[in-house]
Amino acid sequence: MMNRSEPKGPFPGSEQTETEASAAAGLNNEALDSILLFTLRKTQAVIMQDFVSRFDALDLRPIQLGALLLIRSNPGSRQSDIAAALGIQRPNFVTMMDELDRRGLTQRTTSNNDRRSYSLGLTPQGEALVNRALQLLAEHEAFVSSRLDPNERRQLFANLNRIESGLTSGGR
Amino acid sequence: MMNRSEPKGPFPGSEQTETEASAAAGLNNEALDSILLFTLRKTQAVIMQDFVSRFDALDLRPIQLGALLLIRSNPGSRQSDIAAALGIQRPNFVTMMDELDRRGLTQRTTSNNDRRSYSLGLTPQGEALVNRALQLLAEHEAFVSSRLDPNERRQLFANLNRIESGLTSGGR
DNA sequence: TATTGTTATACTCTATAACTATA
DNA sequence: TATAGTTATAGAGTATAACAATA
Lengths: 172, 172
Known about the structure:
The first copy, chain A, is mostly helical.
């Protein structure tokens, strides 16, 4: 098993795999490659690229698909709840819902209990689109993870979730 | 060793740790939590929050610090090279350099070989700022990684780099 | 009083086309 | 012709304040 060297950067864990971008111009990237935020940025960028190119056909951006999936799994939720779960501001989610509504993918029905809020749901067309999206999503996810074995993939999710829950609960 | 359950989501690796955001409103997040892009988004968001609050004192955003670090490690580089290494467009990097210059942190000296391009460098004030920043950065990185042992941290970087280099070289 | 959805708005980030000066 | 830096610009993404309706 090659390609797994010892850490060299200022912080432990920065295997100097020589990132593509850095290798390109032959720049020394140690300082950045040992910082999680920068490494996440780069990884996210390439994943995003694959996502966007795959979902171009369905005219769905990541956050839109995220909303549709959340609404599907949580029918009857309020806009505030979905927005919070997506990590976006309520005002910005309104605009998004306007468009999903306009495209006939979602429904806002006024709640019976609390007439201030909506009960969100997918229309049949929304369901149909999500079903097509799930196929694409599986392909995307498989492609993105193709260099990881199942165990490595599990490790990756576990480590990311550990960081996230640590910083969220802990505050600072 | 608790808190490490078996995968339940549609894709392997999605340990249902019940993310903070999802747990908040009690939403079912399986569909999103098993997608790397969404998990990366959330993790990056909390890390970014910590970064921004720490570097507020130095008035440095992540990308600005990234530029300063790259220039320091690669003095004499051209703007195009640094921009490419940062993963941002050349026009946008110009604006950034304008501000770093204005703040007296960087220098653009016209190259001798090729009079179209600049040789970038840090001013003494830039060096001083970066030195202070490195201290903060170490604290940030330690805090962010505090829930990971050195080996888990190494795994995390290795897995992220594997994905990135896989998608970059492979194309699609 | 507090909350839901909304409007307006502003600021950052990102991407592209087109110019200039050099090569 | 091609490249480095630049300008202008447009589109996303993100954040906040303030309002109406409802609780």
